[in-house]
Design a protein that fits this description.
The protein is an alpha+beta fold. Helices cover 42% and strands 23% of the residues. Strands 1, 2, 3, 4, 5, 6, 7, 8, 9, 10, 11, 12 and 13 form a 13-stranded mixed beta sheet that branches. A hairpin with a 2-residue loop joins β12 and β13.
């Protein structure tokens, strides 16, 4: 708050003015001090909300890793998942430590994530030593997964209430006052928001819009799909951007340039009440990205029609033999993930994302970095492990729904041919399990998250 100081116009009231000014200065200082205290309180409250959001995210990721590890049969994959579990548990513990009296108010939650971290570390150590896992250990993992799923949902519900304004997080001073009151009343006092979570804490046994493989690109490699193509001029790149959208080049303006794995020119144009931004590779003149900010109205197309629109658009742009995998609908914009197909093999590294506006079927988003970095005609070896042999590796609790061969990326720049099994648990949850087609060992497990907006994997 800004104070205004008024000066006397007559000498005979000068003393009174000085006195009034002194009070004004004092009052102004008090108001500024109050404003600073309020600003500090807001900062602290935002910090607590951030910590709670971190806790919710860490527990959700811990839950995903637990569910995957419960059905992993290869030692290498289980060891990898246990390492991930330990990291997520540590993140959750740090978030609890940032909340006011978090280790007191969320004692069971803190104990649970610590137990998960310790168990993951012990399993990782025994697995690395070649000990494998016993059926008892698998049952413990499944029980932990069941508990973590319930805990994750409760935390997400509480976070939704916080965002909706129906619940607020206490600051340290409020928590201290309430706990002191509880101690003076023999333990009877109004509880915090956390106590609802603790009261309904699941039973703990005694003792993981967008599609798969979208974050594997390496900036240390050259784009395989652009090899041998000539450099284009900036004007040629602008013409390519215009042709991609079926518009005239004159309406596009050069707005950026970039280096990185795929050097590009960036162009923008005002289209349909929004701004379209495109990036075009300097080598080959291929559109690598499109973003269109135009408002999207009420949907007139179904998700299936949106997928077909995206497939037709890709074919018109020269991307034939692309297979849609997963999609998500956000605010009537359907984003579809496509992977290239080579014969019977689906090549997930060759990824293209297409976003379709469901009000009129126009293309409002496009991303082809994965395809341009990885696509090439591959020399594929015949699988040494048959589909029936690979399926035998799956956990017996998983019902196999479908099978196909697929190329998936490893953690580095390599690829591996796998048997892809889409599976279902008795409770209706869906998994995708990848078994190495040459060694017969599990390579990766994904969870399918399915709701009315589409299907995602984690």
């Amino acid at each position: 708050m800004t104070g205004k100081f008024f000066h006397s116009r007559r000498a005979r009231v000068l003393a009174v003015s000085f006195t009034a000014a002194a009070f004004a200065v004092t009052g102004g200082a008090a108001l500024k001090s109050h404003a600073r205290a309020e600003a500090y309180r807001n900062i602290v409250n935002n910090t607590y909300q951030h910590a709670f959001a971190e806790l919710t995210t860490a527990v959700a990721e811990m839950d995903a890793a637990l569910q995957k590890s419960a059905y992993a049969t290869s030692q290498s994959l289980l060891a990898q998942l246990c390492t991930e579990l330990f990291g997520r548990a540590m993140s959750a513990q740090m978030a609890i430590g940032e909340l006011p009296y978090g280790n007191v108010e969320l004692a069971q939650t803190a104990s649970f994530v610590a137990k998960v971290g310790d168990y993951a570390a012990a399993l990782s150590k025994s697995t690395a030593a070649g000990g494998g896992t016993t059926e008892e250990e698998k049952e413990s993992l499944r029980a932990l997964a069941a508990a973590s799923g319930q805990l994750s949902q409760m935390l997400q519900d509480l976070q939704a209430d916080i965002h909706g304004g129906t619940v607020t997080l206490e600051d340290l001073e409020q928590a201290e006052a309430r706990l002191a009151q509880a101690q003076g009343a023999g333990g009877d006092a109004a509880g915090s928001s956390f106590q609802d979570v603790e009261a309904d804490f699941p039973e703990v046994p005694t003792l993981i819009y967008d599609g798969p493989f979208s974050e594997h690109l390496s900036t240390q490699r050259q784009p395989r799909a652009l090899e041998g193509l000539e450099e284009v001029t900036q004007e040629e790149a602008k013409a390519a951007a215009a042709a991609f959208m079926g518009l005239k080049p004159e309406i596009f303006t050069s707005v950026s340039t970039g280096e990185g794995a795929i050097p590009y020119w960036g162009f923008s144009a005002v289209v349909d009440g929004g701004e379209a931004y495109l990036e075009v590779s300097r080598q080959g003149g291929k559109v690598t990205e499109l973003m269109n900010s135009r408002p999207v109205g009420e949907a007139s197309l179904t998700a299936e029609e949106g997928v077909q629109t995206a497939r037709t658009f890709l074919a018109e742009q020269g991307y034939g033999d692309m297979e849609p995998s997963y999609y998500i609908n956000q605010s009537n914009i359907l984003t579809v993930n496509f992977a290239a197909r080579q014969g019977e093999v689906l090549c997930y590294p060759d990824l293209i994302k297409v976003a379709v506006a469901l009000d009129n079927g126009s293309i409002v988003g496009f991303e082809a970095d994965g395809y341009l970095m990885n696509h090439a005609q591959r020399t594929l070896e015949a699988p040494a492990v048959l589909a029936e042999e690979a399926q035998a590796v799956l956990d017996p609790a998983l019902e196999c729904l479908s099978h196909q061969l697929a190329i998936i990326p490893t953690g580095g720049k390599y690829e591996v041919l796998c048997h892809e099994f889409k599976c279902r648990l008795e409770d209706g949850r869906h998994y995708i399990v990848y078994v190495n087609a040459q060694t017969g060992s599990e390579e990766k497990i994904l969870l399918l998250i399915e709701d009315e907006s589409g299907t995602l994997t984690i």
